Amino acid sequence: MDLAAIQSALRERNLDAWLFYDHHHRDPIAYRVLGLPEDLMVTRRWFYLIPAEGDPQKLVHKIESGHLDSLPGKKSAYAAWQELFEALKQMLASQRDIAMQYSPNNLVFTISLVDGGTLELIRGLGKNIVSSGDLVALFEATLTEEQISTHFAARDAIDAITEAAFKEIGSRVRNGGTNEFEMQQWILEAFRRENLITVDAPIVGVNANSGNPHYGPEKSTAAPIREGDFVLLDIWAKKNVPGAVYYDITWTGFVGKSPSDRMHQVFRIVRDARDAGAKFVQDSIAAGKAIAGWEVDRPVRDSITAAGFGQYFVHRTGHSIASEIHANGANMDDLEIHDERRIIPNSCFSIEPGIYLPEFGVRSEINMLVRSGRAEVTGRMQREIVII
After folding, report:
1. Exposed/middle/buried for 174, CB within 10 Å: 0-12, 13-18, 19+?
2. What is the C-alpha separation between 162 and 204, in angstroms, rounded?
3. Which residues is 250 bridged to in the sheet?
4. What interhelical angle do 81-91 and 116-124 show, nearest 10?
5. Containing domain of residue 73, as a range?
6. Residue 128 bridge partners (DSSP)
7. Alpha-carbon gap, residue 126 to 145, rounded angstroms
8. Last residue of a domain, which of 115, 140, 165?
9. Residue 129 near residue 116 (C-beta atoms within 8 A)
């Protein structure tokens, strides 16, 4: 835990304190931010208060009194519920605006981890609870220079694997055939050679399956890949080193010489929407403008809607990327949620618009890295359908 950095962040946001609370490991964010062991047996409630000024305070149950001993601050212990309520009242006496893992209306549901009864309890003490979303992003989705270097290392490997995968599909189609599952396994074997790891296997989707955003081929039901097929590859992985950051891209190709006019049309609409989002981020950051995730979603979604395909773009524009493939920074989202979390320096995220039709689907995914005063696309940008 970086106490000085947390307190500085609280002061910058005019917050009095950040209150962490857990039982039964309901809040994994707390363990990561505070640096607590994740294998503790936690059957009773604990609270940890970090004020903007002064020393932290701990509140633990008497039978699990040592759970927060690795953290600085004065410790109080309770057994009876009356003792808990009174101790909380004293702990929060000088605080008014308190951040917790909470999101109004449960919009950012990955942050909204505190239960309703506990919110009632804290509010009943006269406290104003605000979302810790931006704080969590600062401490969970801000990358070090070493982490950023692992993102680029993953990029170099994955860009090469993606290009090789399309060539392998073409070779196999013309020399005996292949299917989605076999190509997924080919990619996973390439990951092993390049010391890459992933939480989930990549997507290889053909024709109608490419129109399913979260399709995953199964061995027993995988579709064959043949001449004339449309193919989508969604590939994400990170280097197998501590703290490594994911690289996550989606490309599309056609097995044959002549994709249909419809395929070209849909691809170019998606490509142009993707580029509109990237340009908005780059222009905004260069101009020193603070932007939130929902604002990036707007130009991308508006572009696809203006082209007449808005109803087929059924997911957010992008997600936060860090050591988890879906990290706790701002998502590029004004569809599933209105994500008001700010895009901060040294954060990474995807821009991945898609149009998903019954017969095929197109997604074009890039990653962006924001620095102080500039933003960059970290890998190659697909310009046309790959001819396989």
Report:
1. exposed
2. 11
3. 234, 365
4. 60
5. 3-140
6. 97
7. 42
8. 140
9. no
Element (H, E) at 112: none
What single-letter amino acid sits at 115? D
Domain final position from 140, 168, 199: 140
β-bridge mates for residue 377, sequence order: 368
Q: What one-letter code names the amino acid at 2?
A: D
* Summary mean pLDDT of the chain: 95
Give the pLDDT confidence of 11-57 residue by residue, as tens digits.
Answer: 999 999 999 999 999 999 999 999 998 888 899 999 999 999 999 99
Domain at 318, CATH number: 3.90.230.10
Q: What total of structural domains would you count in the chain?
A: 2
Token pair listed for 336: 């599933």
Residue 264: both structure tokens together = 């070209």
Q: pLDDT tens-digit profile of 68-127?
A: 999 999 999 999 999 999 999 999 999 999 999 999 998 888 899 999 999 999 999 999
Same domain, yes or no, for 265 and 194? yes
Which helix or strand (DSSP H or E) is residue 235 part of?
strand 230-239
Copy the structure tokens of residue 258.
């002549």
Tell me the longest C-alpha to C-alpha distance in the chain.
75
Q: What span, in angstroms and rounded, lies between the C-alpha atoms of 247 and 219?
A: 26
DSSP notation for 35-77: T--TT----S-EEEEEESSS--EEEEEGGGTTTTTTS-SEEEE
Alpha-carbon separation of residue 260 from 253, 257, 361 (angstroms): 12, 10, 13
Residues 374 and 286 sit within 8 Å (Cβ to Cβ): yes
For the chain, helix, strand, coil in percent to 5 are: 35, 25, 40
Helix (H) or strand (E) holding 128: strand 128-131
Determine how β-strand 366-371 pairs with β-strand 361-363.
Answer: unpaired
Cβ count within 10 A of residue 25: 13
